[in-house]
Design a protein that fits this description.
heterotrimer, A alpha/beta, B mainly alpha, C mainly alpha, A: alpha/beta, six-stranded mixed sheet, C: mainly alpha, MetI-like fold, 2 domains, 14 helices, 75% helix
C-alpha cells in the first residue's frame, strides 16, 4: 500500500487511461419502486486529465461521480456495466479493496464543506486522517504536509488554521481545507462534486483558482461535476453533457463552447442568451427613501437605502448573501418596519407595518418567492391557490372565479387540466408559474421577485423570465427583482441596484452599471462572474495580480 | 423539464368540477398493505363490539351467573366465570365498551386542550408561548403515572376524575407536538404570503396551518390513544382506575390473576385484548405515517 | 466565563427551579383535599374531636407557607413526616415505610439498567447499521409488539410460562433484607426480565432512530469516501456526535424504568416503593404518596439534568466557541 499510493512521478505520465467506465447502469429507489437513474453511460479518463460532468438536476451526474469510487448512496444501487480504475474493476473488487482505494487513490470533495466536515474533530485531524489511516505517512509528516497543502491552497494562517474546528472557519476556507484533505494522499483521481455551488461568486473565484492550481501542480486527474458550464469551462479539458442519466454530448472544452452539436447543450446557458434592451421610465411607482432597518433593534442590516422603481419597469437588486437585499423586500412589504426613512407608493407614504395597510394597498404589492415548494401550501389545489386572491381582493365567486382562474392559467401558459392538482403533483417550473399566477390574480402594480429563478434549471429559468417579461408587456406591472445572479440581471433588468453589507453601492440604468468604470465592489462582483470562456479565470487572475489586489 | 403544458385550449364556458373526497379515500385505501388492513379490521371489530355489547353478550354486565367462582370453560360460560361467579366472556365484551369509551374520551379531551393551546402558542409566540411552554415543562418534570397517582389519591378514583386527570397530563405531550409541528408550518413562505395578502387569524389557522399539521396530529392521535389506553388499563390493574362493578380489562386481569399461578391463561385474555388493539392501532398509524410522508415529496 | 460552563450553570439553575416548583406541586396536594377527608380516613365513627385532633396533627391549622417550609426542611434532614396510618400513641414515620422498600426498588432498577442499557444500545446500533436487513425488520416487529403490550401482560405471560409451567423461576418475588445476594437475584429474575423486555424495546427503537439520523449526515458519507474502515466510521466519526442523543435516550428510559417498576412490583408482589405508593394511594395515605412521588420526580429530574449536561458537554460548538 505504502509504495503504490504515492507513486513515482514517472508513473504519472499523461495519456495512459486511468478510469474507464462502460455501460454504467444505476437504479434509485423512490416509494419502494426502483427506477433507472443512470442508463448506460460510458466514460474514459486519462491520467492528469480533468473531465467536466455537466447537467441539470436529475441528470445523474453526482451518482456517476460516486460510482467512479465504486460507491452508491443508500437507496441507489449499481446494476450494470463495469468501472475499471487503473486496471481493476471496482464492481468486481471486494468492499475491502474498494475501501483501500478510497481516499488514497480516489478522493472526493463534496458540495457542502460545512456539512461534510465532522463537527467533533479539528480540521487538521480530518485532513491527515486518510494519509495516516492508509499508512501513507506517519502522523508528524502528514501534519507537515497538510500545512504545506494549506499554504498552496492560499488558506490564511496555514500553520494554525488546522487546529481550529470546522464551525470556526468560513465556508470558502472549509472548501479549500477539504481540497487539502482530498490531496493528502496525492490521489490519482479527485471527484469534485459541485464544490463551489454553495459559495458566493466573489468567494468562488478564489476557491476555483486554488483547486485548479493544486490539481495542476500534482498532475491529478479529476472529474468536476457542476450545473454551471462557465465554471466547468475553467476547470476541465473535456466536458460531458448528461441528461436524465444519458450522455448527450462529449467534446473538448473549447470545441463544446464554440460549436455545441446538440440543441440541448445550448439550453444550458439559455439565460445568458436572453438580453432585453433596457427602457427608461419616469413615472415612479415605488420609492424607498433613506431607510435603515435592524433585526431585534441591534444588528443593522440596512443603512441609508434609497431605491426607486419606475412603472412598468424592472429594477434588479443584486448582492451576495448578507447584502440586505431580502431585508429590503421585508421592509417594502411591511414585514419589517424600518427604523428610519419612508417607503412611498405612488407618491404617498406607505404605513410602516403590515397590519396598518388596507386591503387595496396590499393588493397592489405582491410577492413571489425563491422556492415555490415553500411558497405554495401543499394542501391547496391550484384552483384554490389562484382563486383565493380573486375572491379575497376582487370578490369573485363560483363559476366566475373558476373562469378567471383558467384565464390566468392560460396567461402563464399552463393547461387548465392542472386546475385540480396539488403542488406536489407539479414540476418545479410549473409551481413557480402558479406562484406568478397567484401574484397576478391580485392585479398588482408592483411584484417583488425574491430570487424567483435561482432554484431552477437554466431552461426553466429562461421560460420563467420570458413569461415575466411577457406579463410586464401585457399588464405594465413593475418588478423589483432580487437576485445574486448577474446573468439573470442582464437578461431582464432595466435598472440595477448593487448592494453590499446593507448599503447601496451603485444604482442606475443597466448599461451604466454594467459598463466600466465601476466602483470597487461592483468591479469585484462583476469580474467574479464566470464567463463562457476557458481562459476567463486565467486572465482574471493575471489582471488581479497585476493590480496587486488578490482578495483573501 | 420541458413538460410545462403550453397549449391552452379555447376558452371554456364551464370549468370541470372537483373530485370528491370519498373517491380519494377509496383510491388510497385500495393500496393499503396487509398489516394496515389487519389493523383496520381489528379496530372495526372492537368498535362493533363496543357499540353492541349489550346485544351480543349472553349475560348481564355484572350479573352473577354461577354460585361457584372461577368456573372452567364450558358451553354455558365460554371463558368460565370470574372470582364472583360472573361470566368472563360477557365481561370481556362489556370491557370493550367501557375501556375503549373512556380511553377515547380522554384522548379527545387531551387533544382539545393540548392541540388548541399548542397551535395558539405557535401563532402568537412571545410571552404566550413562553408561559405555556414553561408550564408544560414543569408538568412534564413529574413522570406521568406518578402524577396521576398523586391526583387520584387526592380526588379519588371516579370515571370523571380519571378522564380529566389523564387528559390534562397527556395534553402536555400533545401540546409539545402540536406546537413544534405548527411552528414548522408557521415559518413557511405560504403563511407569510397569506399574511401579506391581508388574511386574518382565522383563515391562517384553519386554511393554512391546520390542514398541514392534520396528518401528523391524526397519527399522533392513534399513538396517544394507545398510550392513554395503556395508562388507564395500568391504573385499573393497580385497582386505582375504573372501579368495580364496571367491567374493565385492566381490573379483570387483577381480579383473576391468581388463576395464572395454576397455569390457567384465562386472565390473560383481557390483557391480550388490550395488546391486540394497541398493535392494530400501531399498524394503521405506521401505514398512515408512511402514506402521508410519501404524499409530500411525490413528484 | 467559558460558554460551556455558563450553559451548564444555567441548566443546573433551571433544574433547581424545576425541583422547587415540583416540590410545591407535590406539597400542595394536601391543600386540595376535600373537606370530609378526615372522616374518610378515620372512618365513620370519628367524633368531631378526633377529626380536629387529626387536622391539627397534620398541621392544617397552620398557614401553608409555614407548613411547606416545615415539610421541605424535614425532608432535607431525612424526615418525611408521619403516615396517616399513625394513631395516637403509635407513630409510623413515612421513612419507616419507604426506606427498606426504596432500597429494594433501587436494586431492581439497578440490575435492570445493567442488563437493559448495554443490550438496548447494542441492539439499536446493530439495527441501525444493518437497517432494512432481516435482523432489523424482525427486531423492529418484535419491539413494536412489545411496546404495544401493557406491562402486566408481559409480566403475566412470563410468569405463566417461566414460573408456572417451566418452573425456572419463583412466580412471586418476596425478597427480604436478610436474603443472600444470589437468592435475592433469583427471586428478582422475573421482574427484572419483564422490565428489561419493556425498556429494551423502547430504548432500542429510540437508539436506532438516533443513530440512523446521525449516519445520514454528510460527514459520515465523507468518512466512508475517505476509505475509513466501518468500525472507525462508527467509533471516530459517529460516536463523538452521538453522546447527546444516546444520553437522552438512556435518561428517558431509566426514568421510565422507575415508573414501569410500579406495575411490575404489584404483579410479582415485590416489596418496592412502587407498591408502597399504590397501597398508599388506595388508602389515601397522603404523606406516603407525597414522599414516593417526590422520590420518583427527583430521580426523573436528576436523570434528565444529567443527560442535558452530557449533551452540552459533548457539543463541539460549545466546547470550542468561535
Amino acid at each position: 500500500m505504502k509504495s503504490d499510493a504515492r507513486k513515482s512521478d514517472a508513473k504519472r505520465t499523461k495519456g495512459e487511461t486511468l478510469l474507464e467506465i462502460r455501460d454504467l447502469k444505476i437504479s434509485g429507489q423512490s416509494d419502494d419502486v426502483w427506477h433507472e437513474i443512470v442508463k448506460g453511460v460510458d466514460l474514459t479518463l486519462k491520467r492528469g486529465e480533468v473531465l467536466g460532468l455537466i447537467g441539470e438536476s436529475g441528470a445523474g451526474k453526482s451518482t456517476i461521480g460516486l460510482a467512479a469510487m465504486g460507491f452508491a448512496r443508500p437507496g441507489c444501487k449499481i446494476t450494470g456495466g463495469s468501472i475499471i480504475f487503473d486496471g481493476k474493476d471496482l464492481r468486481k473488487a471486494s468492499e475491502e479493496e474498494r475501501r483501500a482505494l478510497r481516499g488514497s487513490r480516489i478522493a472526493y470533495v463534496a458540495q457542502s464543506a460545512a456539512a461534510s466536515f465532522n463537527p467533533a474533530h479539528r480540521i487538521i485531524d480530518q485532513t491527515v486522517e486518510t494519509a495516516v489511516g492508509h499508512d501513507v505517512l506517519d502522523r508528524g509528516k502528514a501534519e507537515a504536509d497538510a500545512k504545506d497543502l494549506y499554504t498552496r491552497l492560499k488558506l490564511p494562517n496555514p500553520a494554525t488554521i488546522g487546529s481550529r474546528y470546522p464551525h470556526q472557519v468560513s465556508g470558502g476556507q472549509l472548501q479549500r481545507a477539504m481540497t487539502a484533505m482530498a490531496m493528502s494522499c496525492r490521489p490519482d483521481l479527485i471527484i469534485f462534486d459541485e464544490p463551489t455551488t454553495a459559495l458566493d461568486v466573489t468567494t468562488q473565484v478564489d476557491v476555483l483558482a486554488a483547486m485548479r492550481d493544486i490539481v495542476e501542480q500534482f498532475n491529478t486527474a479529476a472529474i468536476y461535476i457542476t450545473h454551471d458550464l462557465a465554471v466547468v469551462a475553467q476547470m476541465a479539458h473535456r466536458i460531458m453533457v448528461l441528461r436524465h442519466g444519458k450522455l448527450i454530448e462529449e467534446a473538448p472544452t473549447r470545441e463544446m463552447l464554440k460549436s455545441p452539436k446538440e440543441a440541448y447543450t445550448k439550453t444550458l446557458w439559455a439565460v445568458r442568451s436572453l438580453a432585453m434592451p433596457e427602457r427608461t421610465g419616469k413615472d415612479v411607482v415605488l420609492r424607498v427613501h433613506d431607510v435603515d432597518a435592524t433585526y431585534g433593534g441591534i444588528v443593522k442590516v440596512l443603512e441609508n437605502v434609497t431605491v426607486q422603481v419606475p412603472r412598468g419597469r424592472t429594477v434588479a437588486v443584486v448582492g451576495e448573501s448578507g447584502s440586505g437585499k431580502s431585508t429590503l423586500a421585508r421592509v417594502i412589504t411591511g414585514l419589517l418596519p424600518p427604523r428610519k426613512g419612508e417607503v412611498y407608493f405612488n407618491g404617498k407614504p406607505l404605513p410602516r407595518a403590515l397590519k396598518d395597510r388596507d386591503k387595496d394597498t396590499l393588493r397592489r404589492i405582491q410577492m413571489i418567492y425563491q422556492s415555490a415548494d415553500t411558497a405554495l401550501n401543499p394542501r391547496q389545489r391550484v384552483r384554490d391557490v389562484i382563486g383565493r386572491p380573486l375572491e379575497f381582493y376582487l370578490g369573485l365567486k363560483g363559476q366566475e372565479r373558476d373562469r378567471k382562474v383558467v384565464e390566468l392559467l392560460e396567461q402563464i401558459e399552463l393547461s387548465e387540466d392542472l386546475i385540480d392538482r396539488l403542488p406536489g403533483e407539479l414540476s418545479g417550473g410549473q409551481k413557480q408559474r402558479i406562484c406568478i399566477a397567484r401574484a397576478l390574480a391580485a392585479d398588482p402594480e408592483l411584484i417583488i421577485c425574491d430570487e424567483v429563478t435561482s432554484a431552477l434549471d437554466q431552461i426553466v429559468q429562461e421560460g420563467i423570465l420570458k413569461l415575466l417579461l411577457k406579463l410586464q408587456k401585457e399588464t405594465n406591472v413593475s418588478y423589483l427583482f432580487i437576485t445574486h445572479d448577474i446573468a439573470t440581471v442582464r437578461a431582464i433588468a432595466d435598472e440595477i441596484v448593487v448592494m453590499y453589507q446593507g448599503r447601496v453601492v451603485q444604482q442606475g440604468l443597466k448599461t451604466e452599471v454594467l459598463s466600466p468604470p465601476h466602483p470597487p465592489y461592483t468591479e469585484l462582483l462583476l469580474s467574479s462572474v464566470p464567463e463562457m470562456d476557458p481562459d476567463w479565470l486565467t486572465r482574471l487572475l493575471e489582471k488581479r495580480q497585476a493590480k496587486g489586489k488578490v482578495s483573501a | 423539464m420541458s413538460v410545462d403544458q403550453t397549449a391552452p385550449r379555447s376558452a371554456p364556458r364551464t370549468v370541470k368540477a372537483r373530485r370528491t373526497v370519498m373517491q380519494n379515500v377509496w383510491r388510497t385505501l385500495r393500496k393499503a398493505p396487509l398489516s394496515a388492513w389487519f389493523g383496520m379490521i381489528v379496530i372495526a371489530i372492537y368498535i362493533f363490539v363496543a357499540f353492541f355489547a349489550p346485544w351480543i353478550a349472553p349475560y348481564g354486565e355484572s350479573e352473577v351467573v354461577s354460585q361457584q367462582p372461577f368456573e372452567v370453560w364450558s358451553w354455558a360460560h365460554w371463558l368460565g366465570t370470574d372470582q364472583l361467579g360472573r361470566d368472563m366472556f360477557t365481561r370481556l365484551l362489556f370491557g370493550a365498551r367501557n375501556t375503549l369509551g373512556i380511553a377515547l374520551a380522554t384522548t379527545l379531551l387531551a387533544f382539545a386542550i393540548g392541540g388548541g393551546l399548542g397551535i395558539i402558542a405557535s401563532i402568537f409566540r412571545g410571552w404566550v408561548d413562553q408561559l405555556l411552554s414553561r408550564a408544560v415543562d414543569t408538568l412534564m418534570a413529574i413522570p406521568q403515572l406518578i402524577f396521576a397517582l398523586i391526583l387520584l389519591s387526592i380526588f379519588g378514583s371516579s370515571v370523571k376524575n380519571l378522564i380529566i386527570i389523564i387528559a390534562v397530563l397527556d395534553s402536555t405531550r400533545v401540546f409539545r407536538l402540536a406546537r413544534s409541528v405548527a411552528m414548522n408550518v408557521v415559518v413557511m413562505d405560504y403563511v407569510e404570503a397569506a399574511k401579506l395578502r391581508g388574511e386574518g387569524l382565522v383563515w391562517i389557522l384553519f386554511k393554512e396551518v391546520l390542514p398541514n399539521i392534520m396528518p401528523t396530529m391524526v397519527a399522533e392521535f392513534g399513538l396517544r390513544f394507545c398510550f392513554v389506553f395503556l395508562t388507564i388499563s395500568s391504573l385499573s390493574f393497580l385497582g386505582l382506575g375504573i372501579q368495580p362493578p364496571t367491567a374493565d380489562w385492566g381490573s379483570m386481569v387483577r381480579e383473576n390473576a391468581t388463576l395464572i399461578t395454576y397455569g390457567d391463561f384465562t386472565p390473560l385474555m383481557p390483557a391480550g385484548a388490550i395488546a391486540l388493539l394497541t398493535v392494530a392501532v400501531n399498524f394503521v398509524v405506521d401505514w398512515f405515517l408512511h402514506k402521508t410522508s410519501g404524499l409530500r415529496d411525490e413528484k | 466565563m467559558h460558554p460551556l460552563l455558563r450553559t451548564v450553570l444555567q441548566r443546573l439553575g433551571l433544574g433547581l427551579i424545576t425541583l422547587f416548583v415540583v416540590s410545591l406541586i407535590i406539597f400542595s396536594a394536601i391543600e386540595f383535599l376535600p373537606g370530609d377527608f378526615a372522616k374518610a380516613i378515620l372512618g365513620q365513627a370519628a367524633t368531631p374531636e378526633t377529626v380536629e385532633a387529626f387536622q391539627k396533627e397534620i398541621g392544617l391549622d397552620k398557614p401553608p407557607v409555614e407548613r411547606y417550609l416545615n415539610w421541605i426542611g424535614g425532608i432535607l434532614q431525612g424526615d418525611f413526616g408521619s403516615s396517616f396510618s399513625s394513631r395516637v400513641g403509635f407513630r409510623r414515620t413515612v421513612l419507616d415505610i419507604i426506606a427498606p422498600r426504596l432500597w429494594n426498588t433501587l436494586f431492581l432498577a439497578g440490575i435492570t439498567a445493567l442488563v437493559a442499557v448495554p443490550l438496548a444500545l447494542g441492539l439499536g446500533l446493530m439495527a441501525a447499521l444493518y437497517r432494512n436487513s432481516f435482523f432489523d425488520r424482525a427486531i423492529n416487529a418484535a419491539t413494536l409488539t412489545t411496546i404495544s403490550f401493557p406491562e402486566f401482560f408481559v409480566a403475566y405471560i412470563l410468569m405463566l410460562f417461566l414460573a408456572v409451567q417451566l418452573r425456572w423461576f419463583p412466580s412471586l418475588s418476596n425478597v427480604s433484607a436478610d436474603m443472600p445476594f444470589f437468592e435475592r437475584l433469583e427471586r428478582s429474575a422475573l421482574p427484572v426480565l419483564t422490565l428489561t423486555l419493556v425498556i429494551v424495546a423502547h430504548m432500542m427503537r429510540m437508539t436506532r432512530a438516533a443513530i440512523i439520523g446521525l449516519l445520514a449526515s454528510p460527514y459520515i458519507e465523507m468518512a466512508r469516501l475517505k476509505g475509513v474502515s466501518p468500525g472507525q466510521v462508527i467509533l471516530r466519526h459517529a460516536l463523538p456526535n452521538a453522546w447527546a442523543p444516546i444520553a437522552n435516550v438512556v435518561a428517558f428510559n431509566l426514568a421510565y424504568l422507575v415508573v414501569g417498576a410500579v406495575v411490575v412490583e404489584v404483579v410479582f408482589v415485590y416489596p418496592g416503593i412502587g407498591q408502597a405508593m399504590v397501597d398508599a394511594v388506595r388508602s389515601r395515605d397522603i404523606p406516603v404518596v407525597q414522599a414516593c412521588a417526590l422520590i420518583f420526580a427527583v430521580t426523573y429530574i436528576l436523570l434528565n439534568l444529567l443527560a442535558d449536561i452530557i449533551s452540552i458537554a459533548t457539543n463541539p460548538r460549545l466546547l470550542h466557541p468561535r
